[in-house]
Amino acid sequence: MRAAYVERLGPVDAIRYGELPDPVPGPGEVLVRGIATAVNRVDTFVRSGLYPTPVPLPLVLGRDLVGEVVEPGTSGPAAGSPVWSNSLGHGGRQGAASRLACVPFTIGPSWVS
């Protein structure tokens, strides 16, 4: 898959764009095809190393993602379902600036008015 990533933390010129292996969802994750992503200020802090957090290298950048489920896993939403995430690209997770991303999936509270 095509992705924006870094092989080392540092300045903006460390960012690369190219092919990386497709991610494989683990327990509690769904595989999502990205439709849109944003550049979040936190992304620059993580990429530069100013926000110390465990990251796998190479690290796909990007925290925010809107997309659709490709592989729902055992308890995720059905394939084709729209999803949103804002917790990628730090804390040991790969980011959203790629064609495919593994997104942690949890069911939140239902709000009824």
Automatic annotation (TrEMBL):
- Top-level division of the source organism's lineage: Bacteria
UniProtKB keywords: NADP
- Return the annotated region ranges for Disordered: 72-94
Q: Which InterPro entries does the record match to this protein?
A: ADH-like_N, GroES-like_sf, Zinc-ADH_QOR/CCCR
Provide the Alcohol dehydrogenase-like N-terminal domain boundaries. 26-88
What is the recorded name of this protein? Answer: NADPH:quinone reductase-like Zn-dependent oxidoreductase
Originating organism:
Sphaerisporangium siamense
